[in-house]
Amino acid sequence: MSQYPQWYYNEFKQTGVDYTDSEEVQAYDLRMHKLRDIESESKWLREILKIKDTDLLLEIGTGTGELALKLSAYCRKVVAIDVSKKMIDFAKMKAESQNKANIQFYNAGFLTFENYDEPFDVIVTQLALHHLPDYWKMMALRRIYGMLKEGGKFYLRDVVFPSPIQDYDSYFNNIITDLKKSAGDKIAEETEIHIREEFSTLDWIMEGLLKNAGFCIEAVKCDGFIVGYLCKK
Ligand SMILES: C[S@@+](CC[C@H](N)C(=O)[O-])C[C@H]1O[C@@H](n2cnc3c(N)ncnc32)[C@H](O)[C@@H]1O
Q1: What would the mean pLDDT of 162-172 be, rounded to a whole number?
Q2: CATH class for domain 22-232?
Q3: What is the mean pLDDT of residues 29-49?
Q4: Dihedral sign, CA of 103, 108, 111, 112?
């Protein structure tokens, strides 16, 4: 971070859940295997993003690398980045154990990754952009736009709060109560941390940020407060 001005956001400093903690990294991987079907997620992304075997793809906030590993089967090369070195080391280990040769991992983030290669055909980020406050989300989205080829696709999936809601207190209390029953105490506790300390924003702000960065939003898919935006440059 030393080459950045004093006012620049330090994206390596963890906010909310600490993904630089080795135990958390392992636990996150296990939880995601239980809760999600990443194989189906990757097949669905391949379809809607029309990923081709000649494509160069970037995943930002790759976490334990599960999606990057799956997507690497469909394209020429995946570049996967994350600000947590522990996450990147874990993902690298997985790639090596699966003999995946077409993935490169970097310890960098939305605001610091520099692409010295050709522009990307596809950029994907899931459940990571909310780690940045809104102004820095905007900067991140502009950087993503700049790293894409003309006509390139961008898929953003993240926690985005709906509007208008008359009573946000009841809305969040109900979410936590339901999560305790459906997903357990740990996920409910992480969601409390998320709402309190991380920077998930409202739907109208997110759409404004995407459009302002230059993207055309082609489709929006809401699954409760998890929202996916399919965008084109
Ligand atoms: C909730 S995890 C999501 C991981 C993975 N994308 C998934 O869907 O399971 C959030 C990840 O974003 C990473 N992250 C946080 N801030 C970031 C930033 N500014 N740039 C890139 N990654 C970031 C964290 O280190 C963590 O690995």
Answers
A1: 95
A2: alpha beta
A3: 94
A4: negative
Amino acid in the structure at residue 223: D
How far is the C-alpha of 43 from the C-alpha of 164, rounded, in Å? 33
Q: 147 CB under 6 A from ligand 1?
A: no
pLDDT at 85: 96
Which helix or strand (DSSP H or E) is residue 218 part of?
Answer: strand 216-223
Phi-psi region of 142 (alpha: psi -120 to 50; beta: other; left: phi over 0): alpha
Instruction: Give me the torsion for CA of 106, 109, 110, 112, rounded to 10°.
Output: -90
Q: Select from 36, 78, 131 the residue to mutate for testing ligand 1; criterion: most ligand atoms less than 8 Å from CB.
A: 131
pLDDT at 2 over 70: no
Q: Are 127 and 205 in contact (CB under 8 A)?
A: no
Q: Can you tell me the distance from the alpha carbon of 10 to that of 173, in angstroms, rounded to the nearest whole number?
A: 31
Give the model's pLDDT for residue 1.
61
Q: How many CB atoms lie within 10 A of CB 229?
A: 20
Q: How confident is the model at residue 35 (pLDDT cuts 50, 70, 90)?
A: confident
Nearest C-alpha to atom 23 of ligand 1 is from which residue? 61
- Indicate the domain borders of the chain: 22-232
